[in-house]
Amino acid sequence: EKWPALTITKVDDTGAAVKGACFRLYKVNSDGSRGAAYGTPACNNLSNTVEIGAEPGAYLLAESKTPTGF
């Protein structure tokens, strides 16, 4: 089943889109702490945005790779 996607755009301090960032979703445990990683990291190496799809639930989004200079 295809789930709705979260679209992420990393921008610099001027608002310009930046390539080279990777993001990872983590499930959120019932106590609110970060749980297990969900899926694989999504990177925006080829475009300015990343789309991540996930089943319904509570998640934490973290940047897992920062582009050079950030």
Structure description:
The chain is mainly beta. It is 0% helix and 49% strand. The chain is globular, with a radius of gyration of 13 Å. The relative contact order is 0.38.
Features of the shown structure:
single chain, 5 strands, about 50% strand, two-stranded antiparallel sheet, three-stranded antiparallel β-sheet, globular
Count helical runs: 0
Query: How far is the first residue's CA from the last residue's CA?
Result: 36 Å
Q: Sheet bearing the most strands, described?
A: 3 strands, antiparallel
Q: Helix coverage percent of residues?
A: under 10%
Quick description:
With 70 residues, the chain is mainly beta.
Please give the structural blueprint:
Blueprint: E1 5-9, E2 22-28, E3 34-43, E4 49-53, E5 59-65
Antiparallel strand pairs: 1-4, 2-3, 2-5
